[in-house]
Amino acid sequence: MACAKSSDKTPLRGFYGRRAGKKLTDSRIDALETLLPELGIDEAQLEGTLKLADLFPAPPAHTILEIGFGTGEHLLGLMERAPDAGFIGIEPFINGMATFLRDLKPTPMRNVRVFMDDAMMVVDALEDECLDKIYILNPDPWHKARHHKRRIIREDTLYQYARVLKPGGQLISSTDVPDLAEWIVEKTTAHERFDWADGAQERWKTKPDWWIDNKYATKGAKGASEMHYMVFDKTL
Ligand SMILES: C[S@@+](CC[C@H](N)C(=O)[O-])C[C@H]1O[C@@H](n2cnc3c(N)ncnc32)[C@H](O)[C@@H]1O
Fold first, then answer.
1. Is 26 in the active site?
2. Which partner for 4 in 18, 34, 154, 230 could form a disulfide, CB atoms 3.0-4.6 Å apart?
3. Whole-model pTM?
């Protein structure tokens, strides 16, 4: 899985991926111009505690965060499936954000707030225990050991994911990079507030029947083989 080239990196706080790619089409520019002001989370909102009540007119009973949504087909799929839920989608890559907003534009769904920067800026600001699920699908592998601290699932970020998840909430991830899959499992199951969801360990190489594929799910990255599906419960 390779969406952002590490050689293209533009450090931006905690984000080390690619921020912009090929020239945006008119429809994507139009979607950015019209929907980002309406749906974007303002950086000023991150200065204090960010409450769901600040993001949604009526705080949703069920709220889902997707970190690094790429071009957003998985997020759109979740939204179609749960029209009453609230969604937060974070993607720093402008072409990805523009594609998601372009695809969202013709639909009436507006139960989503988006942020185009490092996910941890939002996660760190969010109030405690407000999310039901966090999806982090095919995160950048950052193969070199000296870059492991850039991985989006690591000890310090897991503390924050646990803090913002409700009791019984879930962290859901996937990768086709075996080393990264092992890293995610090792870090998450070693964490005092997470454990495999029931049966998820036995089935981690079998796609759950509720899984929504995204555009890149079948494309391989360097060192990639089969997809691993990881579902963890917040236990404490
Ligand atoms: C390999 S792509 C996967 C995209 C999508 N989840 C998928 O499965 O097709 C990783 C994505 O994570 C995003 N990303 C990397 N670092 C991030 C961060 N700190 N916060 C939010 N997104 C990040 C990248 O811009 C990129 O779109």
1. no
2. 18
3. 0.92
